[in-house]
Each structure stands twice: as C-alpha cells, then as structure tokens.
C-alpha cells in the first residue's frame, strides 16, 4: 500500500486527490523535527517537499522511496545524485507557477518604475504629491532584456510586449530562430543587450554556470540608470555588487524576490539600499499558483506509482531504471 509523506502542509485539494486514490495513504508532517522525520521516513514511498532539504541520508531511511515531488520548480535543496543512485525519481511542477512568477515580475517592474513602495511610505507619513528625487516612469516604449527563455521567460516576454515594451531575449541554449520566431529580438552577446536595456530581468536556473552571474562586471555593463529584477534564484546575484550599483546610481531601482541566503538576515547589504524593493520569495506563491503546484506534485506522485510519469516533469530520468518495486491497488 503506497504511503505518501508530505513535508509541511500543502493545498487541501492536493491532499484530497491523494487520499482519493485507491490504496494510497497520506501523512502530513507539520513540524519537521528529526524525531518526526525519523518516524515518518521508513514508511514513505513518495515525498512531497516544498522548501526543505531532502538528502541521501533521508533517502537511506526510506528503503521503499520511489519519488520526491518538488512543490515548485527549483531543486537546489534536493540531492539529485543521491536520489538517482537510489532509484528515486525527482519531479518538479514546471507549468504550475510560470504564470504566477511572470505576473509578479511585471509587478516588480511597475513598482520600480512608479516608485510604489516609496510613495506609499510618503503618504503614510502624510506627504502628498510627486517629488523630484522620486521620479516615476512609464514602461511602455522602454527596452527590457529577459535572461532565460523558458516557461517563465516566455510568459514575461508576452506580458512585456502587451505593455508596449521592446523585448530583447538572451538565452544561449535556445536557437536564435526560435526567439525571433516568437516575435522578439534575440541577443547573441549579453553585453550588447545589457548596454541598451532599460530593464534587466532574470529567468534562468541556478547552476554552476549561472551562479554569481550578476557581478560587478555584469552590473557595470548595464545601461546606467536601468532597473534590475530578480524573481529567479538568489544565488545568481552577488548582492554586495548589486548594493554598490544601487548606491552609485548605476542601477536606479531593483526589484528582488529571492536572496542568496534565505531567510533574510540583518547583514544583507541590499537592506541598506532604499532604491531596492523586496518580496519574500513569494513570486510563485499566489493562492492559485500554490494550488496548481500542490495538485501537480500530487499527480506526479500518483503517476509515478503507476509508471506513467510524463517526461517533462522528471529531473533525473536515469533513476527510472533503478526504482524499487511497488504494489499499487487498482
């Protein structure tokens, strides 16, 4: 009888989907203490995880584990080699949150352009009207450079085009013809795009190649006074360099949803930049997006139990050849 371990609560509709499956049992661990996990892991055939670590030691405690379903798209906290070695498939929810993150990205762009946070604070202090030191801007007619043309980047491009922005795309892994065929200008040399873009927005994964991508050299290559948006991964950015660029005016405004180390600490240099606005890694966490992610993760668990996982959700397909057997009812 397959047993699903859910590390912290997810949307009720997803739990109901699992509980309705014949022969499947569900356990939600609310507080992830060592004692609670030590008791729960040995029974687990599937794990649904949100933002917690799943490592090889945990997998070793779950000999019947077949799948770790990530409630989201990033899998930095999951030991992929360790899971693959044990035949544990890791999945993501690739379509579930793309629209939510794209909308959040546009929100950050608009908040930067219109100084929304700063003017909100002024009104609460009983100040009224536009002041010269806080100029506001339209985004229509501006040029945006989108780094990454995956599921989220393509949606951001469509939204930006709808707002009247000139859209440039840089993605060395996507053919230039594909980008141009979608109606956008492809940038071959990143520095060329940085030099002309009024807004730079990141939509690429964190990897050995991209970690620390946004450094002093990157920021120095940007058009002076541009906006910088990151709703992708915190480890793409060297935060001290960004803080200095904000202080000097090289970057006029930044909209940041993710940090190098989370949760935020008092020593983060960006906190001292008044021209940086934040959200606490909530781009994907709209009510609708959270429900879609939960349902997608739950469906992946059920699909894994019945050997019908779609290829586009699997992170480590090599694990498919190593999976332990599982008896599933009906």
Automatic annotation (TrEMBL):
<dbReference type="InterPro" id="IPR006140">
    <property type="entry name" value="D-isomer_DH_NAD-bd"/>
</dbReference>
<feature type="domain" description="D-isomer specific 2-hydroxyacid dehydrogenase NAD-binding">
    <location>
        <begin position="106"/>
        <end position="283"/>
    </location>
</feature>
<comment type="similarity">
    <text>Belongs to the D-isomer specific 2-hydroxyacid dehydrogenase family.</text>
</comment>
<feature type="domain" description="D-isomer specific 2-hydroxyacid dehydrogenase catalytic">
    <location>
        <begin position="4"/>
        <end position="314"/>
    </location>
</feature>
<dbReference type="Pfam" id="PF00389">
    <property type="entry name" value="2-Hacid_dh"/>
</dbReference>
<dbReference type="GO" id="GO:0004617">
    <property type="term" value="F:phosphoglycerate dehydrogenase activity"/>
</dbReference>
<dbReference type="Pfam" id="PF02826">
    <property type="entry name" value="2-Hacid_dh_C"/>
</dbReference>
<keyword id="KW-0560">Oxidoreductase</keyword>
<dbReference type="GO" id="GO:0051287">
    <property type="term" value="F:NAD binding"/>
</dbReference>
<dbReference type="InterPro" id="IPR029753">
    <property type="entry name" value="D-isomer_DH_CS"/>
</dbReference>
<protein>
    <submittedName>
        <fullName>D-3-phosphoglycerate dehydrogenase</fullName>
        <ecNumber>1.1.1.95</ecNumber>
    </submittedName>
</protein>
<keyword id="KW-0520">NAD</keyword>
<dbReference type="InterPro" id="IPR006139">
    <property type="entry name" value="D-isomer_2_OHA_DH_cat_dom"/>
</dbReference>
<dbReference type="InterPro" id="IPR050418">
    <property type="entry name" value="D-iso_2-hydroxyacid_DH_PdxB"/>
</dbReference>
<dbReference type="InterPro" id="IPR036291">
    <property type="entry name" value="NAD(P)-bd_dom_sf"/>
</dbReference>
């Amino acid at each position: 009888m397959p047993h699903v371990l859910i590390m912290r609560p997810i949307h009720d509709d997803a739990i109901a989907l699992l509980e309705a499956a014949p022969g499947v049992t569900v356990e939600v661990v609310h507080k992830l203490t060592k004692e609670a996990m030590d008791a729960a892991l040995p029974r687990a055939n599937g794990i649904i995880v949100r933002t917690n670590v799943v490592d090889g030691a945990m997998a070793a405690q779950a000999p019947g584990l077949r799948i770790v379903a990530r409630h989201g798209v990033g899998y930095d906290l999951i030991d992929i080699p360790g899971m693959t070695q044990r035949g544990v498939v890791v999945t993501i929810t690739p379509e579930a949150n793309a629209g939510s993150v794209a909308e959040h990205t546009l929100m950050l762009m608009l908040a930067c352009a219109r100084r929304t946070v700063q003017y909100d604070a002024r009104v609460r202090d009983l100040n009224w009207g536009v002041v010269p030191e806080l100029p506001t801007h339209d985004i229509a007619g501006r040029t945006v450079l989108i780094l990454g043309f995956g599921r989220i980047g393509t949606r951001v491009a469509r939204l930006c085009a709808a707002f009247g922005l000139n859209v440039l795309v840089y993605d060395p892994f996507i053919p230039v013809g594909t980008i141009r065929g979608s109606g956008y200008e492809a940038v071959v040399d990143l520095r060329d795009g940085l030099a002309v873009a009024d807004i730079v927005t990141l939509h690429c994964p964190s990897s050995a190649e991209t970690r620390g991508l946004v450094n002093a050299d990157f920021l120095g290559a940007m058009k002076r006074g541009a906006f910088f948006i990151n709703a992708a991964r915190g480890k793409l950015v060297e935060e001290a360099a960004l803080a200095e660029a904000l202080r000097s005016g090289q970057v006029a405004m930044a909209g940041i949803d993710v940090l190098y180390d989370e949760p935020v600490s008092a020593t983060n240099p960006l906190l001292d930049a008044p021209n940086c606005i934040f959200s606490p890694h909530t781009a994907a966490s709209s009510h609708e997006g959270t429900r879609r992610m939960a349902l997608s993760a739950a469906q992946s668990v059920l699909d894994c139990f019945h050997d019908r996982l779609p290829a586009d959700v699997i992170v480590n397909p090599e694990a498919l050849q190593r999976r332990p057997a599982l008896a599933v009812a009906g």
